[in-house]
Recover the amino acids of this structure.
């Protein structure tokens, strides 16, 4: 394995622990700071806007100035943002830090491009899912630790500890080696992305999949605490099981053709929504969160299906544009989920299930059927 991928995996693992400590309980902390369900949905949508606007320029810059500088910049922004959230003692200062943290989403396209270029003999799907698994392993440890810290020392303390972990992760990411920037042949430029019909058609499909898959998620921690009576530690345990599911299902679905793994990931999210809605007790909720690992796997598998649709020199921009489209669901879905929760706490689940059934059928009919066949020389980090 390329040594840079090892350093990258270590940095992602450490970051995953830190983010996992607060990821699943952040809506509960917003509630504790005084936000109602609609406000929580609005705040999460604001974070989604920040994530969305960050992606296209990041993809373009990854192709022009290199991926390593953008990766290091994302790590530094995230570390400072976590410190701002830790320092905040009331709702709106915390939200400011949270919005700044959301801008770190611009890491996604240079991270995918860096991994794709450094993958060696691995397939794109395998490389992306394996690197993703290192982050997801951290997301196993983080929720357990965060739930315990939150119950014993307060949720705010979690952000101080996470900030320390992010500093360590930033040191690790500086160890990755630069990659040669893509060569652009100005005499024979590749077709524009907006003229690539196969690419645009797949983005439309991926948007619908992401929307349906995310719909049941934003306020599930609030539903479990307020309607089912779960404690912070129990929600942290569920988050850890979700982290295990992220690792196992990413690795498992990554062994299939990207199209088939994509379908399986949607089916696993369907079962998550069903078990949360109709289930009871920690064992079934734990299984639901394990199956939610399919949501993260779907992102890597969608990216893997994009690679054969584009020219090599467009990789960063294409990934960035795709991330922008997919992250636009993070703007729309939390607002909708907040309104549905306000109307009836469990209303979002049957709606999500019906939507997912349609989406799975559409994906089966229209997802690309060809397995990615990289034809271009591999870059060495």
């Amino acid at each position: 394995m390329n040594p840079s991928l090892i350093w990258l995996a270590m940095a992602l693992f450490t970051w995953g622990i830190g983010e996992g400590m607060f990821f699943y309980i952040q809506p509960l902390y917003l509630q504790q700071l005084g936000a109602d369900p609609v406000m929580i949905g609005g705040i999460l949508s604001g974070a989604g806007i920040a994530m969305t606007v960050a992606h296209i320029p990041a993809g373009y810059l990854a192709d022009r100035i290199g991926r390593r500088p953008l990766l290091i910049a994302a790590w530094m922004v995230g570390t400072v943002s976590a410190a701002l959230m830790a320092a905040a003692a009331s709702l709106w200062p915390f939200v400011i830090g949270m919005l700044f943290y959301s801008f770190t989403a611009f890491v996604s396209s240079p991270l995918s491009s860096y991994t794709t270029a450094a993958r060696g003999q691995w397939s794109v799907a395998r490389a992306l899912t394996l690197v993703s698994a290192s982050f997801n392993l951290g997301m196993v440890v983080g929720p357990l630790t965060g739930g315990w810290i939150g119950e014993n020392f307060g949720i705010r303390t979690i952000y101080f500890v996470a900030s320390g972990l992010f500093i360590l992760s930033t040191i690790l990411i500086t160890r990755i080696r630069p990659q040669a920037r893509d060569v652009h042949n100005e005499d024979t430029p590749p077709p524009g992305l907006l003229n690539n019909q196969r690419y645009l058609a797949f983005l439309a499909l991926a948007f619908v999949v992401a929307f349906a898959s995310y719909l049941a998620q934003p306020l599930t921690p609030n539903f479990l605490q307020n309607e089912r009576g779960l404690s912070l530690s129990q929600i942290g345990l569920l988050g850890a099981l979700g982290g295990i599911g992220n690792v196992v299902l990413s690795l498992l679905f990554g062994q299939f053709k990207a199209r088939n793994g994509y379908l399986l990931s949607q089916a696993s999210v369907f079962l998550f929504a069903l078990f949360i809605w109709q289930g009871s007790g920690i064992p079934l909720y734990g299984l639901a969160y394990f199956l939610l690992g399919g949501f993260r796997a779907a992102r890597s598998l969608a990216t893997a299906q994009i690679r054969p649709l584009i020219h090599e020199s467009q990789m960063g921009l294409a990934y960035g544009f795709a991330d922008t489209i997919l992250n636009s669901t993070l703007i729309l879905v939390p607002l909708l989920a907040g309104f549905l929760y306000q109307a009836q706490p469990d209303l979002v689940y049957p709606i999500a299930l019906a939507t997912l059934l349609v989406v799975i059928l559409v994906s089966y009919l229209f997802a690309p059927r060809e397995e990615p066949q990289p034809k271009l020389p591999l870059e060495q980090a």
Notes: The radius of gyration is 20 Å.
